[in-house]
Amino acid sequence: MLNLGMTEIFCFAVIALLVLGPDKLPEAARFVAKWYGKIKKFINNIQNEIDRELRLSEFREEMQKEIDKITELERRMQQQLDALKNTQTSSEVEEAKTETKAPIIYTLFSQQTTIPFSLEYQKQLPFKPEPKLPTQQFDTELKIAV
Q: Transmembrane region positions (predicted)?
């Protein structure tokens, strides 16, 4: 830090011994060492704060670059979605014009009947239901959430 060699330190010690005397020399050495430690800690704290601020500013710049990239990607994705919506709406309109749907017909049962949910379910029942309708194999099962 100060670039002092052994000979310079020895010269300072001899001058301090002559000026202060042997009684006050230990007290002066403690005082100088104490202030040297305080100054060194202060300088280290300032260096650490400067390094931290530099890292923080670099981090902010990187974050801003990433945010810019994300917004650019979002803009491109939105453009692609808009283009897809435009093509889908035009093709859906053409399909709706050409496609006609058959009407759904519901029939009302006048008698109380048992409609099988599935054959596995009927096998688990303690009694055997008497089907009034012919049992058919259904592709779908009715699931009820309780």
A: none
pLDDT digits (tens, 9 = 90+) for 30-70: 998 999 999 999 999 999 999 999 999 999 999 999 999 99
Q: How many CB atoms lie within 10 A of CB 24?
A: 13
Average pLDDT over residues 102-115: 60
CA-to-CA dists, residue 62 to 10, 34, 70, 75, 88, angstroms:
52, 42, 12, 20, 39
Residue 128 reports pLDDT greater than 80: no
Return left, alpha or beta for 3; rule: phi > 0 is left, psi -120 to 50 is alpha, else beta: left
The Cα 78–Cα 76 span in angstroms is 5
How far, in Å, are 24, 32, 58, 110, 128 from residue 9 at the CA level? 18, 13, 42, 116, 110
In the prediction, which pLDDT does 61 show?
93
